[in-house]
Amino acid sequence: MFRARLGAVFAGADVRVCTAFWLFGILICICFLFDHSADRKQGLINNVLYVIILSAALDLVGPNVPKAVVLLADIIPSFLIKLCAPYFIHLVPYWLRIILFAVISSWGMLLIALAPPYTDGGTITTKMAGVVLASLSSGAGELSFLGLTHYYGSFSQAAWGSGTGAAGLIGAAYYSIATTSIGLSVETSLLASSFLPLIMLLSFFLMLPRRLLRRATSLQNHNENVGHEEGNDDFSDREDHGLLAEPLSESTASLKSFVPIVTTTTWKTRFLHDLRRSRGLIFPYILPLVLVYFAEYLINQSVAPTLLFPLNETPFTEYRSFYPTYATIYQIGVFISRSSLPFLRLPYLYSMGLLQCLNLALVILQALYTILPSIYLVFALIFWEGLLGGLVYVNTYAKVSDEVPEAQREFALGAVSVSDSAGISLAALVGVVGAVEEGLCGWQVGKGRDWCRRL
Prior knowledge:
Layout: H1 2-9, H2 15-28, E1 32-34, E2 43-45, H3 48-61, H4 67-84, H5 94-114, H6 121-148, H7 154-181, H8 186-193, H9 197-207, H10 211-225, H11 267-303, H12 322-338, H13 349-369, H14 375-403, H15 409-416, H16 418-433, H17 436-446
Antiparallel strand pairs: 1-2
């Protein structure tokens, strides 16, 4: 019975499509989590290339570089590219984008790996340039691959979401095993990982059935040339979606404010029109995802490092073990929820966003007053945080695919991708400017709980 139901869920799925998008999700999508341990600062990111690059960058730039510098170099370029690229990236064909992403990612890793040890400002600048390149590649890659799922149906979107969830676990494990267990140097680990973008190229050019993309793009260009308006939005006809056996959704009832596309050759007119179309995406999709990511990453970056207990009440032998454990539990929750799309659809985006804000309030109270008496209850809360974050991520894009008209869907998927970077950037700004972690730690020290000083 269970096998029959499972088969029904995945009926029509193409293994090549699902595998390709799962790998794309691992290698591109960006969400990150910083380790604030005092003696070894390591970044954990839901992206294998980003995990490796940022983790190594933090180890290489040295203790005198403020964490905020690396944080800003990591998130701001991705945010800016996601904010701007949806209005012009359609001019670049997908095959060329993939090549550029692979080259830029490898270039970023090589800049960090081959720069001399941190002895002067010049080498630190070089390493930060590597982080910036990784951020640009990841941001442009995420909005591009999300747009690409439009041509391959809901299974591609489900595989993408699962891949982004798996990346946090795989990427962090790679860097830890390479540098700690095997004993490779940071430089050697980065040089080895600089070949990972080849997987992206192989997945796109050899694994992904690109005939669907070629046919859909050709028909779209034909419609634009003959001046078809939004009413003829079936440029990716149902035969193109036959690979995944997914019916096309034409529902526009919940998106009446979304402005129809115009097919004009005037770049300025299209740009202004796209701006108006973006406004229709803010309230139904962008804001709930910004809300979730703001609460989620304020927890991860600023509050979680202060969720400490006496060691004799925990399974740990040192205080620096708390945060990596929280990060791992969080990533497991993210992976499970981002892999849930074929089985579970939850369109209540604002409700889940408010629940994440409730989590933020609870962990702040925990840091201040220890309202949860056991660390295992904190483990459960962190796991729930990861589940909520992953659920909102995959269900937001599923909702876009269900509700946005066919001809506008590719643009909408890319435009909404700015949400996570905006939420993370806002969380970083509040955390750094508001000195949240330092304030909570100071409160704890004043109450006789100086564990945060022992990290």
